[in-house]
Amino acid sequence: MTERNCSGKQMSLQQAIKKYVTDGCSITFGGFIGRDCVAAVHEIIRQGVKDLTVIDDSKTDMMDLLVGAGAVKRWEGAYLGYGAIGLAPNIRRSIEKGIPSKIEVEDWSNAGISMRFLAGSLNVPFMATRSMLGTDIPKYNERIKVMHDPYEGEPIALVPAAHPDVAIIHVQRADAMGNAQVWGFTGNDENKARAAKHTIITCEEIVTTDEIRHQGNLTLIPFYCVDAVVQVPYGCHPQSCYGYYAYDVLFCGDYHEAAKDREKFLKWLDHYVLSSQNHLDYCAKVGWDRLHKLMGMERHFNRIPG
């Protein structure tokens, strides 16, 4: 892992993506049922990055966007869909019809891919797990090695460490050094940051280091794992960010309906992503009143720790 300095990490989203996300790199994204890195995905698409290998657990609309935009070459993970909304139209179209291109798919269970990130974070070559035993996944995934446990003699699966070129993780707040705080479900985010060669933190707000220290127990990712810090308010929309804004289910439903048809999807992509200069431009198109209402809904039910 490269050494990270304490200063000079704060930059724009455009700068961070241009510096760390390149054609053909491997990438993982933070968030699980919330805190999705949607703004970062939009910027990746705007910059025309291609041939990405995405190594992840389970992803929904942001992966559908990336695949529909032709940015993904390979997927290594457990689940691709659209959560409660339904199937992911662009992903299904890619796999079934090769439109805009056919992505490679390597199947893992959620536990299996989690163990890969754990191995990567510990800098060990593999991890042992009982996950996926008794399924067809090892039959079609040659990188899962089934052996006999040398202590008990029972079958055990070995999974290789994951070391993505870059991890992008959205958090509620961070300081300029990259100490990143999360409340709510954390998923595999800490291990992703430790396993990756480079880590970009996007956040709702950048706060002082003194504020971070005041609630040090919330710091999930320490500064020495982080290369770039980017303030991106509403950076998860239309997904939720615990304590900041609620899930925009109507917006997701509209996207899903548009994505069922390739031409309608391309029009949606052009309007909300490609013709937007940056994330603030996207927010203006969504509507600030709408975003503020989502914030009000979230803060009515979930209190920010303080």
From TrEMBL:
GO terms for molecular function: CoA-transferase activity. Gene3D superfamilies: 3.30.30.40, Glutaconate Coenzyme A-transferase. Keywords: Transferase. The keyword Transferase applies. Belongs to the 3-oxoacid CoA-transferase subunit B family. This is Acyl CoA:acetate/3-ketoacid CoA transferase, alpha subunit.
